[in-house]
Amino acid sequence: MTVHQLSIFIENKSGTLVKVLKLLKGEGIQLIASTIADTAEYGICRIICSEPERAYEILKKAGVAVSLCEVFALSLDDVPGRAADAIEIFAKEGISIAYLYSFLLNGKGVLIFRTDNAEKAAEAIKAARLSVIAEKDLSKLL
Amino acid sequence: MDKQFYNQEEGLSRSEIEALQLERLHSTVEHCMGSAFYRKRFADSNVSVSDFKTLDDLRKIPFTTKQDLRDTYPFGMASVPLDRCVRLHSSSGTTGNPTVILHTARDLDQWANAVARCLWMVGCRPEDVFQNTSGYGMFTGGLGFQYGAERLGMLTVPAAAGNTLRQLKFFTDFGTTVVHAIPSYAARIFEVMQEKGIDPRRDTSLRTLVIGAEPHSEDTRRRIEDMLGVKAYNSFGMSEMCGPGVAFECKEQNGLHIWEDYYIVEIIDPDTLEPVPDGQVGELVLTTINREAMPLLRYRTRDLTRILPGKCPCGREHLRLDRMKGRSDDMIILKGVNIFPIQIETILMQFEELASDYLIILETLEDNDYMTVKVEIKDIPVDDYAKLKALEKEITRQLKDEILITPRVRLVPKDSLPKSEGKAVRVKDLRKQY
Question: What is the rounded CA–CA span in Å between residue B245 and residue B189?
């Protein structure tokens, strides 16, 4: 039901992000999506990439503060209002979105997000028959 | 007529001081035989009470260290039965053994006299109004100045620490003329005065400021004097030596007279432990010769200073210590609070989210001293800003409980802190204090 995401703790300092990305580049791992929120001192860089488990091991070995977490990935038709419809389902169930980011992939909108209640969110997704992207398919789309 | 000296001992000549010191050293050494710790010390070093013929004979006995105080915590160094003691002061902190200093009624009496003498020396008189912005309780700057100021006969305002607006109201309502504050708080007071449109020269009767417990430069003193329109005098003390009242600047503002009827002064090289030549900087070692409950012989203060050569124009012949030059150990003095990095380390190591490296940064921002603790996190503990913030907050809270000061805690990635020759740098002091 979920896909793997790398969450990387990065100091808000020039040169720290590129160090991480170069490590991935060196191993031929491709980014599919990424996001960083800014705070004063540090940020969490979240990355969806090819071979997330291998990427995790590479970063960990290099001493990067990284964790591998599970997030939902929904595939939505690229027409106005689909994101609103999807999020409304969670709102109705009282499920909060911790964070969310989105991108377009092969003509489909992809929503990546984490909620405060993964189990309940999974049930809601099932009940509403939302289209979930499996991890192996995410890489295939590349 | 106004007397020059608060009491007779203050005005003694060198030879009179040394004669009194020898006499008091004798009685102190005898008195120390009441302490299990010193009995053993003397036996271990094959020294007996009768071996003390001159002041130099003091060197026959080993130094007393803070570790000795910790090892004998709480009452192992007492030279009198506990029922003769009326107060104790203890160091802050919960990691490792803290230290305790015991006092008899006579000790408190003598302590008050010493503080009164200091205050008298800088022109305080019974008609003055003395406001103390020190924390009270275990912090000796509170009760120490309280009793001394009362002894002198001033009207005292035990305002204690914090609440600057209330402090200002007391200044104006009670006509405060003398204030005791740490230098950074004096600057804070001025800041709030400016916000409130109070001109210290026009709207208050402030005349004298006693600053201590926090190292500061001559520049800082002059700036504070300019801001508040006062004369600021440097005060030196430490809880092991009672607290405030050990050494104090006279009106010359050039060196702090250390009261040699209370203390025998040595300056040593902290590495070789040998005395340094006169006028050179070394570690201050003090022997209390006017204390009953818990005399300390050759106590290593870890403060670096030197004895100023020559006579002071004020006429007092008690030695003058130069402004403190630093520490010979890793103790941090921040806002009058003594902090050892190990206290911080002990707290940090209790968090399993954190790696073992940390960096304590001390800096001065707009006349206020701050501590930032940068700490490396092991792995990203959670994929959640709120939880990272909560972790920061919890570390901050626990540190505050331990060191009594609220540091700014910054999480940083593993291996991002500077290392020197593989050994982590623990403290970076960017303050302009010495």
Answer: 24
